[in-house]
Amino acid sequence: MPSLKDIKTQINSVGSTKKITSAMKMVAASKLRRSQEKAEAARPYSSRLEEMLSSLASSAASGEGIIKLLTGTGNDQNYVVVPVSADRGLCGGFNSSINRETFKLVKSLEGNGKKVQLMPIGKKSRDFFNRVMKDQIIESFVDLNVSSTGYESALNISNKLQELYFDGKFDKCILVFNKFKSAISQEVTQQQLIPLDVSNSEKEEEKENSSNAIYDYEPDEETILKDLLPKNVSIQIFKVLLESDAGEQGARMAAMDNATRNAGEMIDSLTLKYNRTRQAFITKELIEIISGAESI
Amino acid sequence: MATISFDLVSPENLVFNDEVGTIIVPGKDGDLGILPGHSKVMSSLRPGRIMVYSEDKNLIKSFFVSGGFAEINPEKCIVLAESVVEVNSLEKTSIEKEIQELENKEGKESEEQLSVAKAKLEAINVNYYDKI
Fold this sequence. Notes:
The structure holds 2 protein chains of 2 kinds. Chain A is an alpha/beta fold. Chain A has helices at about 5-55, 70, 95-110, 125-130, 145-150, 150-165, 200-210, 220-295, and strands at about 80-85, 115-120, 170-180, 185-195, 215-220. A 4-stranded mixed β-sheet of chain A has the order 2-1-3-4, sandwiched between helices. Chain B has 2 helices and 10 strands. In chain B, strand 6 and strand 7 (about 60-65) form a beta hairpin. Strand 5 of chain A pairs parallel with strand 5 of chain B, so a sheet runs across the interface.
Protein backbone atom coordinates (compact mmCIF):
# COMPACT_ATOMS: atom_id res chain seq x y z
CA MET A 1 0.00 0.00 0.00
CA PRO A 2 1.44 3.40 -0.97
CA SER A 3 2.22 5.73 1.86
CA LEU A 4 0.44 9.02 2.28
CA LYS A 5 3.51 10.88 1.11
CA ASP A 6 3.69 8.90 -2.14
CA ILE A 7 0.11 9.79 -3.02
CA LYS A 8 0.71 13.43 -2.14
CA THR A 9 3.71 13.61 -4.52
CA GLN A 10 1.70 11.96 -7.26
CA ILE A 11 -1.13 14.45 -6.83
CA ASN A 12 1.32 17.31 -7.04
CA SER A 13 2.97 16.04 -10.20
CA VAL A 14 -0.35 15.45 -11.95
CA GLY A 15 -1.35 18.93 -10.82
CA SER A 16 1.63 20.55 -12.49
CA THR A 17 1.04 18.56 -15.67
CA LYS A 18 -2.48 19.86 -15.65
CA LYS A 19 -1.22 23.41 -15.36
CA ILE A 20 1.05 22.91 -18.36
CA THR A 21 -1.64 21.37 -20.54
CA SER A 22 -4.18 24.01 -19.68
CA ALA A 23 -1.64 26.73 -20.46
CA MET A 24 -0.90 25.05 -23.79
CA LYS A 25 -4.57 24.90 -24.49
CA MET A 26 -4.96 28.60 -23.96
CA VAL A 27 -1.96 29.39 -26.11
CA ALA A 28 -3.33 27.17 -28.87
CA ALA A 29 -6.71 28.84 -28.59
CA SER A 30 -5.31 32.30 -29.09
CA LYS A 31 -3.07 31.11 -31.91
CA LEU A 32 -6.05 29.42 -33.48
CA ARG A 33 -7.90 32.68 -33.61
CA ARG A 34 -5.00 34.35 -35.33
CA SER A 35 -4.51 31.53 -37.82
CA GLN A 36 -8.17 31.49 -38.57
CA GLU A 37 -8.16 35.20 -39.27
CA LYS A 38 -5.22 34.73 -41.61
CA ALA A 39 -6.92 31.89 -43.41
CA GLU A 40 -10.02 34.00 -43.82
CA ALA A 41 -8.03 37.00 -45.02
CA ALA A 42 -6.46 34.88 -47.73
CA ARG A 43 -9.76 33.57 -48.96
CA PRO A 44 -10.87 36.47 -51.18
CA TYR A 45 -7.65 36.31 -53.15
CA SER A 46 -7.72 32.62 -53.83
CA SER A 47 -11.41 32.52 -54.63
CA ARG A 48 -11.10 35.40 -57.09
CA LEU A 49 -8.06 33.83 -58.65
CA GLU A 50 -10.01 30.65 -59.10
CA GLU A 51 -12.86 32.56 -60.73
CA MET A 52 -10.50 34.20 -63.19
CA LEU A 53 -8.81 30.95 -63.90
CA SER A 54 -11.95 29.02 -64.55
CA SER A 55 -13.14 31.63 -66.99
CA LEU A 56 -9.84 31.40 -68.81
CA ALA A 57 -9.33 27.67 -68.61
CA SER A 58 -11.51 26.95 -71.58
CA SER A 59 -9.32 29.02 -73.84
CA ALA A 60 -6.28 26.89 -73.17
CA ALA A 61 -5.46 24.55 -75.97
CA SER A 62 -3.03 21.82 -75.15
CA GLY A 63 0.19 23.71 -75.35
CA GLU A 64 3.80 23.89 -74.45
CA GLY A 65 5.49 25.64 -71.57
CA ILE A 66 3.56 27.03 -68.69
CA ILE A 67 0.21 25.92 -70.05
CA LYS A 68 1.30 22.44 -69.03
CA LEU A 69 0.36 23.34 -65.47
CA LEU A 70 -3.21 23.19 -66.68
CA THR A 71 -3.17 20.56 -69.35
CA GLY A 72 -0.67 18.14 -67.83
CA THR A 73 2.29 16.48 -69.46
CA GLY A 74 0.17 13.82 -71.07
CA ASN A 75 1.83 11.22 -68.88
CA ASP A 76 0.66 9.64 -65.71
CA GLN A 77 3.73 7.84 -64.47
CA ASN A 78 5.64 9.96 -61.99
CA TYR A 79 3.98 11.36 -58.91
CA VAL A 80 5.06 13.78 -56.25
CA VAL A 81 3.14 13.54 -53.01
CA VAL A 82 3.35 16.45 -50.60
CA PRO A 83 2.21 15.67 -47.07
CA VAL A 84 1.62 18.83 -45.04
CA SER A 85 2.12 18.27 -41.32
CA ALA A 86 3.00 20.39 -38.32
CA ASP A 87 6.44 21.07 -36.94
CA ARG A 88 5.48 20.14 -33.43
CA GLY A 89 3.65 17.33 -31.74
CA LEU A 90 1.20 17.26 -28.87
CA CYS A 91 -1.73 17.86 -31.12
CA GLY A 92 -3.59 14.59 -31.05
CA GLY A 93 -3.87 12.61 -34.23
CA PHE A 94 -3.11 15.60 -36.42
CA ASN A 95 0.29 14.51 -37.69
CA SER A 96 -0.13 10.78 -37.56
CA SER A 97 -3.30 10.87 -39.65
CA ILE A 98 -1.45 12.82 -42.35
CA ASN A 99 1.42 10.36 -42.30
CA ARG A 100 -0.88 7.36 -42.38
CA GLU A 101 -2.95 8.73 -45.24
CA THR A 102 0.13 9.65 -47.25
CA PHE A 103 1.68 6.27 -46.64
CA LYS A 104 -1.49 4.58 -47.85
CA LEU A 105 -1.64 6.80 -50.94
CA VAL A 106 1.97 6.12 -51.83
CA LYS A 107 1.52 2.40 -51.44
CA SER A 108 -1.60 2.34 -53.57
CA LEU A 109 0.05 4.42 -56.30
CA GLU A 110 3.05 2.15 -56.27
CA GLY A 111 0.73 -0.81 -56.43
CA ASN A 112 -0.54 0.62 -59.71
CA GLY A 113 3.00 0.74 -61.03
CA LYS A 114 3.57 4.47 -60.59
CA LYS A 115 6.78 6.03 -59.43
CA VAL A 116 6.27 8.15 -56.34
CA GLN A 117 8.46 10.78 -54.80
CA LEU A 118 7.85 12.68 -51.62
CA MET A 119 8.22 16.27 -50.62
CA PRO A 120 7.19 16.51 -46.99
CA ILE A 121 6.33 19.82 -45.39
CA GLY A 122 6.72 20.06 -41.62
CA LYS A 123 9.09 18.29 -39.25
CA LYS A 124 6.69 15.59 -38.21
CA SER A 125 6.13 14.15 -41.65
CA ARG A 126 9.74 14.70 -42.68
CA ASP A 127 10.93 12.66 -39.72
CA PHE A 128 8.37 9.96 -40.35
CA PHE A 129 9.20 9.53 -44.02
CA ASN A 130 12.89 9.78 -43.29
CA ARG A 131 12.42 6.60 -41.35
CA VAL A 132 10.17 4.65 -43.67
CA MET A 133 10.97 5.75 -47.22
CA LYS A 134 14.07 7.87 -47.06
CA ASP A 135 15.23 7.39 -50.64
CA GLN A 136 12.01 8.75 -52.07
CA ILE A 137 12.27 12.17 -50.48
CA ILE A 138 13.39 14.76 -52.98
CA GLU A 139 13.09 17.84 -50.83
CA SER A 140 11.61 18.81 -47.51
CA PHE A 141 10.48 22.07 -45.98
CA VAL A 142 10.46 22.56 -42.24
CA ASP A 143 10.10 25.46 -39.82
CA LEU A 144 7.93 27.37 -42.23
CA ASN A 145 6.10 29.27 -39.56
CA VAL A 146 3.51 30.31 -42.09
CA SER A 147 1.61 32.63 -39.80
CA SER A 148 4.57 34.95 -39.54
CA THR A 149 6.45 34.52 -42.82
CA GLY A 150 3.28 34.50 -44.86
CA TYR A 151 3.23 34.17 -48.59
CA GLU A 152 7.00 33.96 -49.05
CA SER A 153 7.25 30.41 -47.75
CA ALA A 154 4.49 29.23 -50.07
CA LEU A 155 6.31 30.88 -52.93
CA ASN A 156 9.49 28.93 -52.17
CA ILE A 157 7.68 25.63 -52.24
CA SER A 158 5.80 26.49 -55.39
CA ASN A 159 8.97 27.61 -57.18
CA LYS A 160 10.70 24.39 -56.30
CA LEU A 161 7.75 22.32 -57.47
CA GLN A 162 7.48 24.15 -60.75
CA GLU A 163 11.19 23.88 -61.37
CA LEU A 164 10.96 20.12 -60.97
CA TYR A 165 7.83 19.95 -63.06
CA PHE A 166 9.28 21.78 -66.02
CA ASP A 167 12.39 19.66 -65.80
CA GLY A 168 10.07 16.76 -66.43
CA LYS A 169 10.74 15.18 -63.06
CA PHE A 170 7.08 14.41 -62.39
CA ASP A 171 3.67 14.45 -64.05
CA LYS A 172 1.31 14.88 -61.16
CA CYS A 173 1.50 16.48 -57.77
CA ILE A 174 -0.85 15.64 -54.94
CA LEU A 175 -1.12 17.49 -51.65
CA VAL A 176 -2.21 15.67 -48.52
CA PHE A 177 -3.24 18.05 -45.78
CA ASN A 178 -5.62 18.61 -42.91
CA LYS A 179 -8.55 20.66 -44.03
CA PHE A 180 -9.81 22.97 -41.34
CA LYS A 181 -13.47 22.18 -40.75
CA SER A 182 -14.02 23.65 -37.34
CA ALA A 183 -11.98 24.34 -34.25
CA ILE A 184 -12.33 20.77 -33.12
CA SER A 185 -12.38 18.81 -36.33
CA GLN A 186 -10.00 18.48 -39.23
CA GLU A 187 -10.36 16.35 -42.29
CA VAL A 188 -7.48 14.76 -44.11
CA THR A 189 -7.84 15.85 -47.70
CA GLN A 190 -6.06 15.05 -50.92
CA GLN A 191 -5.82 17.71 -53.55
CA GLN A 192 -4.29 17.48 -56.97
CA LEU A 193 -2.14 20.53 -57.44
CA ILE A 194 -0.51 19.90 -60.78
CA PRO A 195 -1.99 19.68 -63.33
CA LEU A 196 -4.72 21.94 -62.12
CA ASP A 197 -7.96 20.19 -61.42
CA VAL A 198 -10.75 22.37 -62.76
CA SER A 199 -13.34 19.66 -62.75
CA ASN A 200 -14.64 20.47 -59.28
CA SER A 201 -15.53 23.99 -60.33
CA GLU A 202 -17.04 22.93 -63.59
CA LYS A 203 -20.51 24.12 -62.84
CA GLU A 204 -19.33 27.58 -61.93
CA GLU A 205 -17.20 27.54 -64.98
CA GLU A 206 -20.15 27.18 -67.26
CA LYS A 207 -21.89 30.01 -65.54
CA GLU A 208 -18.76 32.14 -65.68
CA ASN A 209 -18.26 31.43 -69.32
CA SER A 210 -21.59 32.78 -70.31
CA SER A 211 -21.07 36.01 -68.40
CA ASN A 212 -17.42 36.37 -69.32
CA ALA A 213 -17.85 35.90 -73.00
CA ILE A 214 -17.45 39.57 -73.65
CA TYR A 215 -14.31 40.21 -71.66
CA ASP A 216 -11.43 41.97 -73.36
CA TYR A 217 -8.09 40.48 -72.52
CA GLU A 218 -4.97 42.49 -72.24
CA PRO A 219 -2.40 41.60 -73.56
CA ASP A 220 -4.21 38.37 -74.57
CA GLU A 221 -5.72 35.30 -72.99
CA GLU A 222 -2.69 33.14 -73.31
CA THR A 223 -0.31 35.65 -71.74
CA ILE A 224 -2.64 36.15 -68.82
CA LEU A 225 -3.01 32.44 -68.37
CA LYS A 226 0.74 32.06 -68.37
CA ASP A 227 1.01 34.57 -65.56
CA LEU A 228 -1.98 33.24 -63.73
CA LEU A 229 -1.12 29.54 -63.60
CA PRO A 230 2.15 29.69 -61.66
CA LYS A 231 0.57 32.16 -59.29
CA ASN A 232 -2.32 29.82 -58.75
CA VAL A 233 0.03 27.05 -57.68
CA SER A 234 1.61 29.30 -55.07
CA ILE A 235 -1.74 30.49 -53.86
CA GLN A 236 -3.10 26.98 -53.54
CA ILE A 237 -0.07 26.01 -51.47
CA PHE A 238 -0.43 29.13 -49.37
CA LYS A 239 -4.06 28.34 -48.73
CA VAL A 240 -3.24 24.79 -47.76
CA LEU A 241 -0.48 25.92 -45.42
CA LEU A 242 -2.81 28.33 -43.69
CA GLU A 243 -5.55 25.77 -43.37
CA SER A 244 -3.14 23.25 -41.99
CA ASP A 245 -1.79 25.81 -39.53
CA ALA A 246 -5.26 26.64 -38.28
CA GLY A 247 -6.06 22.93 -38.11
CA GLU A 248 -2.93 22.26 -36.09
CA GLN A 249 -3.85 24.85 -33.50
CA GLY A 250 -7.38 23.52 -33.35
CA ALA A 251 -6.15 19.96 -32.93
CA ARG A 252 -3.73 21.01 -30.24
CA MET A 253 -6.42 22.92 -28.43
CA ALA A 254 -8.71 19.88 -28.44
CA ALA A 255 -5.91 17.53 -27.41
CA MET A 256 -4.82 19.75 -24.56
CA ASP A 257 -8.37 20.25 -23.43
CA ASN A 258 -8.71 16.50 -23.18
CA ALA A 259 -5.44 16.17 -21.34
CA THR A 260 -6.46 18.84 -18.87
CA ARG A 261 -9.73 17.09 -18.21
CA ASN A 262 -8.02 13.73 -17.77
CA ALA A 263 -5.54 15.24 -15.35
CA GLY A 264 -8.44 16.71 -13.38
CA GLU A 265 -10.12 13.32 -13.15
CA MET A 266 -6.89 11.71 -12.09
CA ILE A 267 -6.41 14.28 -9.33
CA ASP A 268 -9.94 13.63 -8.11
CA SER A 269 -9.43 9.90 -7.89
CA LEU A 270 -6.02 10.31 -6.27
CA THR A 271 -7.44 12.68 -3.67
CA LEU A 272 -10.11 10.14 -2.87
CA LYS A 273 -7.47 7.48 -2.46
CA TYR A 274 -5.43 9.83 -0.28
CA ASN A 275 -8.37 10.52 2.01
CA ARG A 276 -9.25 6.84 2.27
CA THR A 277 -5.69 5.89 3.14
CA ARG A 278 -5.52 8.63 5.77
CA GLN A 279 -8.79 7.47 7.26
CA ALA A 280 -7.54 3.88 7.28
CA PHE A 281 -4.48 4.93 9.23
CA ILE A 282 -6.55 6.80 11.77
CA THR A 283 -8.91 3.87 12.22
CA LYS A 284 -6.01 1.51 12.62
CA GLU A 285 -4.42 3.67 15.27
CA LEU A 286 -7.73 4.00 17.13
CA ILE A 287 -8.21 0.23 17.13
CA GLU A 288 -4.72 -0.21 18.47
CA ILE A 289 -5.33 2.29 21.29
CA ILE A 290 -8.75 0.85 22.20
CA SER A 291 -7.60 -2.76 22.16
CA GLY A 292 -4.56 -1.72 24.19
CA ALA A 293 -6.80 -0.03 26.77
CA GLU A 294 -9.12 -3.05 26.94
CA SER A 295 -6.35 -5.51 27.63
CA ILE A 296 -5.16 -3.59 30.69
CA MET B 1 -21.03 61.35 -60.86
CA ALA B 2 -21.08 57.62 -60.41
CA THR B 3 -18.59 55.59 -58.49
CA ILE B 4 -16.94 52.27 -59.11
CA SER B 5 -16.17 49.76 -56.41
CA PHE B 6 -12.52 48.92 -56.10
CA ASP B 7 -10.96 45.87 -54.38
CA LEU B 8 -7.25 45.55 -53.94
CA VAL B 9 -6.45 42.04 -52.75
CA SER B 10 -3.10 40.62 -51.74
CA PRO B 11 -2.58 36.97 -50.79
CA GLU B 12 -2.42 37.95 -47.13
CA ASN B 13 -5.41 40.25 -46.89
CA LEU B 14 -7.88 42.60 -48.47
CA VAL B 15 -5.90 45.83 -48.70
CA PHE B 16 -8.47 48.24 -50.04
CA ASN B 17 -12.17 48.04 -50.57
CA ASP B 18 -14.28 51.10 -51.24
CA GLU B 19 -16.28 53.08 -53.75
CA VAL B 20 -14.00 55.36 -55.69
CA GLY B 21 -14.10 57.73 -58.66
CA THR B 22 -11.12 56.73 -60.75
CA ILE B 23 -8.34 54.17 -60.62
CA ILE B 24 -5.18 54.00 -62.64
CA VAL B 25 -3.57 50.57 -62.87
CA PRO B 26 -0.27 49.64 -64.53
CA GLY B 27 -1.37 47.20 -67.24
CA LYS B 28 1.19 45.04 -68.93
CA ASP B 29 1.07 47.04 -72.16
CA GLY B 30 0.42 50.43 -70.59
CA ASP B 31 -1.48 52.18 -67.87
CA LEU B 32 -5.23 51.81 -67.72
CA GLY B 33 -7.42 54.58 -66.39
CA ILE B 34 -10.62 53.09 -65.04
CA LEU B 35 -13.78 55.11 -64.64
CA PRO B 36 -17.22 53.90 -63.65
CA GLY B 37 -18.84 52.08 -66.54
CA HIS B 38 -15.58 50.80 -67.96
CA SER B 39 -15.98 47.95 -70.40
CA LYS B 40 -15.09 44.43 -69.30
CA VAL B 41 -11.36 43.90 -69.33
CA MET B 42 -9.03 41.38 -67.82
CA SER B 43 -5.43 42.43 -67.74
CA SER B 44 -2.19 41.34 -66.19
CA LEU B 45 -0.13 44.01 -64.49
CA ARG B 46 3.48 45.05 -64.52
CA PRO B 47 5.24 46.36 -61.41
CA GLY B 48 4.10 49.91 -60.84
CA ARG B 49 1.76 52.30 -59.14
CA ILE B 50 -1.94 51.89 -58.58
CA MET B 51 -3.52 55.28 -58.07
CA VAL B 52 -6.90 55.66 -56.44
CA TYR B 53 -8.91 58.86 -56.81
CA SER B 54 -12.09 60.08 -55.23
CA GLU B 55 -15.10 61.17 -57.25
CA ASP B 56 -13.84 64.75 -57.46
CA LYS B 57 -10.46 63.59 -58.76
CA ASN B 58 -8.48 63.94 -55.57
CA LEU B 59 -5.82 61.35 -55.01
CA ILE B 60 -6.87 59.13 -52.09
CA LYS B 61 -4.11 56.58 -52.05
CA SER B 62 -1.32 55.24 -54.14
CA PHE B 63 0.01 51.71 -53.88
CA PHE B 64 2.96 49.95 -55.34
CA VAL B 65 2.31 46.47 -56.69
CA SER B 66 4.91 44.06 -57.96
CA GLY B 67 2.57 42.58 -60.54
CA GLY B 68 -0.74 40.84 -60.59
CA PHE B 69 -4.07 40.91 -62.36
CA ALA B 70 -6.96 43.25 -62.77
CA GLU B 71 -10.50 42.29 -63.55
CA ILE B 72 -12.66 45.18 -64.60
CA ASN B 73 -16.35 45.40 -65.28
CA PRO B 74 -18.67 48.41 -65.37
CA GLU B 75 -19.43 48.32 -61.62
CA LYS B 76 -16.35 46.80 -60.14
CA CYS B 77 -12.61 46.65 -60.41
CA ILE B 78 -10.69 43.86 -58.68
CA VAL B 79 -6.92 43.86 -58.52
CA LEU B 80 -5.11 40.74 -57.38
CA ALA B 81 -1.59 41.79 -56.52
CA GLU B 82 1.25 39.71 -55.28
CA SER B 83 2.76 42.25 -52.95
CA VAL B 84 1.22 45.57 -52.06
CA VAL B 85 2.85 48.52 -50.31
CA GLU B 86 1.69 52.05 -49.97
CA VAL B 87 3.96 54.29 -51.99
CA ASN B 88 4.31 56.68 -49.03
CA SER B 89 5.78 53.95 -46.86
CA LEU B 90 8.54 53.05 -49.32
CA GLU B 91 12.00 54.20 -48.31
CA LYS B 92 14.27 55.46 -50.98
CA THR B 93 17.57 54.62 -49.32
CA SER B 94 16.73 51.03 -48.53
CA ILE B 95 15.53 50.40 -52.07
CA GLU B 96 18.67 51.91 -53.53
CA LYS B 97 20.66 49.59 -51.34
CA GLU B 98 18.58 46.64 -52.47
CA ILE B 99 19.17 47.54 -56.10
CA GLN B 100 22.91 47.72 -55.54
CA GLU B 101 22.92 44.32 -53.91
CA LEU B 102 20.83 42.78 -56.64
CA GLU B 103 22.96 44.23 -59.39
CA ASN B 104 25.90 42.22 -58.12
CA LYS B 105 23.96 39.00 -58.19
CA GLU B 106 23.21 36.95 -61.23
CA GLY B 107 20.43 34.60 -62.21
CA LYS B 108 16.92 34.92 -63.41
CA GLU B 109 15.38 35.38 -60.01
CA SER B 110 17.47 38.31 -58.94
CA GLU B 111 16.93 39.87 -62.35
CA GLU B 112 13.21 39.81 -61.70
CA GLN B 113 13.69 41.23 -58.24
CA LEU B 114 15.86 43.93 -59.71
CA SER B 115 13.22 45.03 -62.16
CA VAL B 116 10.69 45.16 -59.33
CA ALA B 117 13.06 47.18 -57.16
CA LYS B 118 13.75 49.58 -60.02
CA ALA B 119 10.06 50.02 -60.57
CA LYS B 120 9.70 50.75 -56.86
CA LEU B 121 12.30 53.48 -57.06
CA GLU B 122 10.56 54.94 -60.06
CA ALA B 123 7.28 54.86 -58.21
CA ILE B 124 8.74 57.10 -55.53
CA ASN B 125 10.47 59.46 -57.87
CA VAL B 126 7.78 60.17 -60.39
CA ASN B 127 4.81 62.36 -59.68
CA TYR B 128 2.72 62.25 -62.81
CA TYR B 129 -0.84 61.15 -62.13
CA ASP B 130 -0.67 62.98 -58.81
CA LYS B 131 -3.21 65.32 -60.28
CA ILE B 132 -5.63 64.29 -62.96
